[in-house]
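Q: Here's a chain of 598 amino acids. Please give me its 3D structure as tokens.
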Amino acid sequence: MSDTYKPTNRSRTLADLLPNSAAAHGADGAFLFKNDAGVWEESSYDQVVAEVQALTLGLRSLGIQRGDKVAILGNTRPEWSLFDFAAMSAGATVVPIYQSNSPSECQYVLEHSEARAVVVEDEDQLAKIREIRDSLPALEHVVLMIGEAEGAISTDEIRKRGEAGSPADYKASYEAVEPDDLCKIVYTSGTTGPPKGCMISHGNYRAMLDMADTANIIEEGETSYLFLPLAHVFALLIQYGMIDIGGRIAYWERDQLKIVPNLVEVKPESFPSVPRIFEKVHDTAVAAAEAEGGLKSAIFRWAFRVGKRYRKLESEGKKPGFLLKKQFNFADKAVFSKVRDIFGGNLRVAISGAAPIDPEILRFYQAAGVPLFEAWGMTETSTGGTTNMPGANRIGTVGRPVDGVQLKVAEDGELLMKGDNVFKGYYKNPEATAETITDGWLHTGDIASIDGDGYVSIIGRKKEIIITAGGKNITPVNIEQEVKRHPLVSQCVVIGDRRPYLIALITLDQEALTRFAAEQGMLDEPSAMINSPLVREELEKQIEEVNKNFARVEQIKRFHILPNDLSQEGGELTPTLKIKRPVIATKYEKEIDELYAS
């Protein structure tokens, strides 16, 4: 840890994190959310800690105590955060469950974790629990965040139970929690097998928060817009980080279509996201400019050429010339300011994590002055490990290790990590724990390189490396990213393990397909375009261009267009939109075999 670092919050655990911040920021805004009337409403730190006190003591009145498991199933919303802090303050270990999980997926997590209680968002989530309740003997209590329902305890009832207690009872409860106690068991998405429960202690997350503080990613008094699922460690870190420094969390309206309008309304300084959101905004902006045609389209393309030249000189510490400055100022006023306004016009930092992002997307935003930085981490590191940041940003890398993290690359290219934020192991799985942590080093499963300045480049996942029939090792992600640069492509999955050559399964972006159909005079039947020779010709051209950038063994020889996009509901994607390669290979075995037979 840096010698100059001074913690902003003297918490020992996540249980005393909120009351400590409330003591320093009592009247300041903590939560911002839209109420039932559709109006943005703010809760202060004092209001939030009072609510958490009542819920903490209410949970304890149910018999929840130190070491018990309390699951939370629901969308990202203020109530999720309130119950999270309450359960931890009661000494319990919180088990987050994605709101999109099926009943059987919920059953696996609840049964494996032996949760004594589950807090569900609404009737829809409650229905999942009702379906599986008989198979969960350890589950004693079901709590409903919103409203009332038979077979569930309402939030109002929990609150009333807790109001019988005192501030001294609350303080005694959260002060009894120790840094070595588990604050979370977070189940991994399971891209290559059943989910594993990652045990994260209060000390792990406190160390992660200290590391985040030293990076100055978020600052006191700022607002961070949060739409990521709180079942994911990236969202949890933002939640705890904002409370840690006395910031404000703005919660989304639980509607993907409202994300951009919310950003415009909230005007956040901080915006954490997954690559897909940044990609969609980029694609929409480019498509809108192209649709304008003529001079406006030409100005848009020219502006980004100017912006990229200008930013490249900036990053090299050189001063742009007089003419380039003039051109840039015009481009900024005419084009870039409008891109920044999509994010509210007030962003100081946007972080892309959870999956790789195309460097060209990053260059687009860099040119426009949108401060977007790529970071890397995993559930097993309590979220983080490396990050780019203002003044230390190298596009194409995931940045340098944060203070307190040690990295090295093993002989086989795997990235190894050591730090106080490394998790305690996998719940009920000592064998997997022993394979993952050896001599204090976490085996991340990522193949990586580290340059002379300490910047880390992730090459691919060790388990996803394709080994062709000829024995060649190929990283599919790099090829897939190149194919996805075409506006029509939503997803690309490269196949070729133990096969003679590579093939690809491609899905189409429906918005782009509709635009393309309109351009071809087929506006009323965009779905018919999926099998259109025109679409296939477009993709053939793209793959031909992509293949030029790769050695012959890495080139895609054939491809198939799938009728529907990949989805979590279809089982092909994890809740964080990562591709489940084994599932896809099995599900589309017939299509794959036909490509190799043709």
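Q: Can you summarize the key feature?
A: The two ends are 58 Å apart (CA to CA).
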